[in-house]
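Lab meeting minutes (informal)
Scribe: AK
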Amino acid sequence: MIKKPAACSLVAGITLTLTLALSPSATAADAADAVSTSVSSSTSAPSTQSTIDALLSESGYSADLKAKIRAAAALLPSDWESRLATQSKRFGLADTTWYAQAQSAINAGDYQCGRTPVQDWLSAQMNGVNGFRMLLLSAMGGDQIPTYDALVFGRESKANYFGADGSYTTELNREMTGLKRFWDFDGSDVQLIPMHGDAYRDLDRITRVYVEVFGLDARSARANAEVVQAIVLNEPALRGGDSPYFTFNAFAFSPEPADIEQYGLTKRIIIGDGVLEGMRGIGLQDKAAPLGVLAHEYGHQVQFATNLFESPLTGPEATRRTELMADAFGTYYLVHARGSALNSQRTLDVEASFYNVGDCNFYMDSHHGTPNQRLKSAQFAVSIVDGAQDQGHKLSALEFDAAFETAFPEIVAPDNE
């Protein structure tokens, strides 16, 4: 997903509409219908307050908690929804979560594109979650706390750990060092930063997102932080914020001058615990799949550095090109003798990870390529390595891109051709 050359999400293709098994009584679709009905009598767009009131009426919360949430919501500015959208667009995050796949646009005769195991796994993680409460959290901007906590306030540090239990820390840090050595640009200012759900257990961290990112005053920020924390901690299935839903993302970011001036941001790659848990959850026990995630995101940093986002393509086709290219860049590093030099089985795990985050959002700017296209892009990179006469020779980024551009029409060709 790219609204501007700032952030690229590996997992933007994963749809989480919460329409599957959220709770016996309330899915997000039910909640959305209820809200629509509740505010349909208004001739203008519903306000944040009216939306929150409609959701609260179906939430099942106690009268005291409802009153506290209403009081906090009343402190939100009149342009609240606009603020959320503006910041999401500013950081290139607009299409990473909460959007529906354009299933009606799929031509099943042209592309084999159904649900993947990781989509089913992620839906299963939301069993028992009340859809009204999740939409309430989203309306207050609370579902994005870990993302902004990592992106805006995270810094590279020896104390950082990757994965909820830290089990991916050594491998990902080692690979980051290898990636910086492998590609022919100065990546010394690219930071690798984890995203954890533990932000929900720290009121100060939630509050600073509301102040520094969303522009609320201290009183309003604290009040909303308290209710966001209450919503998350009182929903057992959200695991105190450790639900993979909140951190099911990985993306590369290259700051604009305003981002540097306001926040001191550097180029960075954010890896969420949810992604790492998801790869393990679908049976990719080897560390190769998470390494593939990082190598893909570093591929975007290669694109930033070499101006490879520029092309005559627009909309979904433009995003698909850069995402599939990043798959190829990542795989090339992982299988190359001077990169990670993965063996055949570990390479298959990488290919499976890319396949599982393909999507069918053909008419959305966030379209990253179908599962089969993402697999073919990775396989293309393997063929470049296997076909090299000198296995020690390494293509430059631009040389590799030239080969990719030649192969691209075949990579995206319909499956029945």
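Next up, CB showed the second protein from the same session:
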Amino acid sequence: MSQADPTPAVRPRRGVPVASLAVAAWVVALSFFVLLGSDLLWVVALGDTVRATGSVPDGIPFASAPQEGWHNPIVLAELLLSVVAGLGTPALAGLQLVLVAATLLVVLADGRRAGGSEVRGALVATLVVVGAAAAFAVTRLPSLSLVPFALAVALMRRQHEHPDRGLWWLVPLFVLWGNLHGAVLVGLAVLGVFLVLSPGGGPWRRRVGVGAGSALALLLTSAGLGTPAYYVQALANEAAARGTDLWARPNLGHPLDVAMLVAAALLLALAARARMPVWEWVATAGLALGTASAARNGVWLLLFLAAAAMRPRVATGRGSSAGRPSLVPVVALAAAAGVSGVVLAGRGPSVGAPGQSAVGAVREVAAGRPVLAVEPFAETLAREGVRVWAANPIDAFPRDVQSDLLDFLHDGTVPAGADIGVVVVEQDATAPVVAAGWRVVREVGGYAVLERDG
């Protein structure tokens, strides 16, 4: 345009934000299925205790079984979930949807910065949601790691392309993350690969400083120097040793596991076409091994591959055109939030604490005696002030108690000699408990409540 040309420059308009619309649609879809699972309400119960007493309890106050010096580094997570749970029945499920949406938006922003298109972003978001359905539709404590993991990976990728002092932002991120959930160890492992193999780590002093600072950040928790012991106990618990329950390996007979593996394979194929750098290949291999050891780790593999899968096959050297900002994503996400809120409110008890309707009956029968109950109902009882024998977190108990609890959860075996007054199982699973000398005294909400016969 010549200097004399009076025509004003016109900023290019963004194309249709298909990827953001896809995220909004998936959030609404998930609102019909999201529920509260195990490994959640015990955190709320501890948070309730901290808020009520103003101090961190010693061990697990709602359990009567012997305990084994359990350290508690996640008081921040406990307080957060306790406050959210206090807002009402659908609040925890609503928080889950917010975390999922925020995570996907971080992934899309990372992919767009690398030149990814909207259509490919929508495809990637869909693959992630389908593959991570178990992690996205079931509200658990690990959900608090979704956003920090996505942010950490996005920052590493940004530093790989444009190294600068911004890498130091990982240290405060790890401080926050370490106070929320133990998956911070996954992020630390990915960071280690990045610092060793990527030029984005910068000068060696920065690499060492960020690495050491991020590792030491894990000690800045409510457990302090006891934090490493917490991680050792958590990783070496009986469920992990058996490869069962929340630590079960991928099962080709389980549809959600198959969906996760297929989604991971497709994302890897897309990412490989865009020529991932060496550090990403090594990190992918590590995350794949983690997924093979426990299906629950598959979500980290999917999220790591997602933004890489958005990259164009031929590098453009720049991200997507900024163009004129569009209000469409904001409006779509706001509408999704409104619709999801209406859906959650309409679902009523189905998004509340599992077995909530049966709590009163169990409390009445138990009359203060310890209760051995199936998961996740045991955590609901704990949150409602009913004393349980043992429940999550399983690593808080000695190995023999862990084994007894898992045996009960798997085949209904009630530990002999344990101080248990009441047993609660699903109504169609009473046979082994009755055969061991217990009798059904109440059936409510799909559960059978049993006492010792005689």
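CB comment: Residues 8-13 have pLDDT under 50 and may be disordered.
No objections, moving on.
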